[in-house]
Amino acid sequence: MLNRLQRSKLRFVPYDQLNSIPNIIVDGAATTGTVLTLSHWPKSTTPPEFRRDTSTEIVYAYLDSPDRYIHAEAASNNHFDEDGLIGIFALTDFHAAEKYRDLLMDVANAGDFGVYRHRDAARIAFTVSAYANSGTSPLPKDFFALPSRQLDGRLYEHLLGMLPRLIAHLNDYKNIWELEDAKLSASEELIESGEITIEERPELDLAVINIPAGLPAVSVHRFTRVRLATCHPFAIHNITKCSRLFIVQGKQIEFQYRYESWVQFASRKPLLRIDLIELVNELNAEEESGGCWVFDGVDRINPRLHIDGSMATTLTPEFILKRLEKHLSIGTPAWNPYE
């Protein structure tokens, strides 16, 4: 039986360098030499007793079960994000990760699902995202000229080394996270004041979000990528657990499935995703703006239904919402991460 000290001797190896090294994959897909996968991804071979919401929580569940330890030499992942980073950190530096367990699990939830309990978790997630993005990263520009798989490996190597200092001395990185932190605060204040409203339809796992028409879009991070948003996603996600969001800002309207319904979420089961291609056809038959309604597809991690080619729709929010609710009510599930 391996003990925790032996487990902490796992080392990170970039995914494209694993070859046949006995490895544990965190938050991604198995490869040659993988002896265990610890991931909330669909169709993951993670042992059922370890299932949790984030891959990081799955790793901690494994670390809490020394009778289930298996021999491996390396930990890795096929993509870079906060959940993968924290999970690999826990496997390769158990003692440091155990000291900050509660905070680190919160960081993983902030990175993957845009929810947090400790504000510092959101700030750490913002910092990791900023480092991983070429437009905001303090890292040398030649980092981002690398092929994507090599870049992921370099990011893991750098941020695994930086993470202990980031956790212990977060204010040293304030110049990186403070601007987005302020954007999050502004969005939370708009919700608190009632200027942004969130109305839930629990039977459909649906939240209707109304945002003032004149509110400008700002740059925020989501899934370590930069996107424009008029309300910070963390502010919305922290208020409602609904996995389906209908967002209205004047004549700019969109629907999205949250990431929770793509993975094998454990603490609750979001309603399964419905393919909205028939709704797209219905909306396009009525749309007069010159734009075209599109749906990204149920297999995307955070798919959207939105209009393309026009800044605004000619359809009313009430019309779109009524049609959407119909399809969500009677549609056949087209994505089941639990199968």
User: What integer is the average pLDDT?
Assistant: 95
Structural class: alpha/beta
Show unreliable segments: none
Which range does the strand content fall in?
15-25%
Cα end-to-end separation: 32 Å
Using the alpha-carbon principal axes, give the shape.
globular
Question: Could you describe the largest sheet, including whether it forms a barrel?
Answer: 6 strands, mixed
Tally of helical runs: 11
Count the E strands: 14
Whole-number count of domains: 2
H/E topology pattern: HEEEHEHHHHHHEEEEHEEEHEEHE
Task: Please give a structural write-up.
This protein is α/β, with parallel strands linked by helices and 339 residues long. The protein is globular and about 60 Å long. The mean pLDDT is 95. Helix 2 runs antiparallel to helix 5 and helix 3 (82-92) runs antiparallel to helix 5. A hairpin with a 4-residue loop joins strand 5 and strand 6 (206-210). The chain has eleven helices and 14 strands. Helix content is 37%, strand content 18%. It has a six-stranded mixed β-sheet with strand order 5-6-9-10-13-12. A four-stranded parallel β-sheet has the order 1-4-2-3. Strands 7-8 form a two-stranded antiparallel ribbon. The two termini are 32 Å apart. The chain has helices at 4-7, 55-63, 82-92, 94-99, 101-113, 119-132, 148-168, 174-193, 233-237, 277-286, 317-330; strands at 11-12, 23-26, 34-38, 74-76, 197-201, 206-210, 218-222, 225-229, 244-249, 252-257, 273-274, 292-295, 304-308, 333-335. The protein folds into two domains: 4-99 and 133-168, no CATH class; 193-335, no CATH class.
